[in-house]
Design goal:
There is one protein chain. This protein has a single domain, classed as Glutaredoxin (3-Layer(aba) Sandwich), CATH 3.40.30.10. The chain is globular and about 35 Å long. The chain has a 7-stranded mixed sheet with strand order 2-1-5-4-3-6-7, with helices on one face. Helix 2 crosses helix 6. By secondary structure, the chain is of the alpha/beta class. It has 6 helices and 7 strands; from the N terminus they run αβββααβαβαββα.
């Protein structure tokens, strides 16, 4: 009986931790410093009070869905850049693989690398295969999460991002 009670309590505690860690709209976005495929380090807090930020996480570089998503974001880059936003894709792949992937596609925006998986864990998107789930975070100039897209359509994601930025009231560049 004590074993059952202990297991039940352990399950309750683990479930509570998982639920507490899940980010919600209005939550402060966890800060991060990640290296981009352009060789620069990007720290989320440096955008605070300056620009909104979009981070589109994908599972694995050089795979079909991720290729479609990144290519569509490049194709729709002009529409995204109309807004006062810094935007990135991101994965837990190492910087070398992401750089090769970016170069192969001729991307005009950085892919961020999180090889330690710490940021993916902070954002609650690291899956049991050790990859990030395909989730896009929209972060306001105040550093709080404006929207979380867990239903990304790889074929239209760039256009979807531009549309969502307008819906969220992110200002256009003047």
């Amino acid at each position: 009986m004590k074993l059952i009670a202990a297991l039940t309590l352990g399950l309750f505690v683990m479930t509570g931790v998982a639920q507490a860690a899940e980010l919600q709209v209005g939550s402060p976005a966890p800060d991060f410093t990640l290296v981009g495929t352009d060789g620069k380090s990007y720290k989320l807090s440096e955008f605070k009070d300056k620009q909104a930020v979009v981070v589109a996480w994908f599972p694995k570089a050089k795979t079909g869905g991720c290729t479609k998503e990144c290519k569509n974001m490049k194709a729709e880059g002009d529409a995204i850049r109309m807004y006062n936003v810094a935007y990135f894709t991101a994965s837990v792949d190492d910087p070398k693989l992401n750089k090769e992937f970016s170069d192969d596609l001729g991307l005009d925006y950085p892919i961020l690398s999180d090889p330690t998986k710490a940021t993916a864990k902070d954002y609650g998107i690291l899956n049991d295969r050790g990859m990030s789930n395909r989730v896009t975070f929209y972060i306001g100039v105040d550093g709080k999460i404006l929207h979380i897209d867990k239903a990304v359509k790889t074929d239209t994601h760039g256009a979807d991002i531009a549309k969502k930025l307008g819906e969220l009231g992110v200002p256009k560049k003047s």
